[in-house]
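pasting for the record
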Amino acid sequence: MPKEVWLPGDIDPCDSCAKIGVGIVEVMDGMDGMSSKQAAHEGLTGNRWLVKDSMIEQLMADNPKKLAEVLKRRIVLITEQTSKELGLPIAATTQTF
């Protein structure tokens, strides 16, 4: 029996993943203006990545307040366009960088 089961809208990384890095979850373009809860219910593409803190620190260096929030929550939502601009690979499983 699995220890954890994914439910729609449950996008927070598990404890072991949160120790490794920050979860990046892709939402459909146009969802970035919505609340994270609404985007998680309606706009998930299925793409997600687990990245080291250092990558998030580089990407968000110009916004220390948002960076601190993301590092505390251990998750950030990005649009499809942003994931393409970052060159994140598209795959059906979680990947760690």
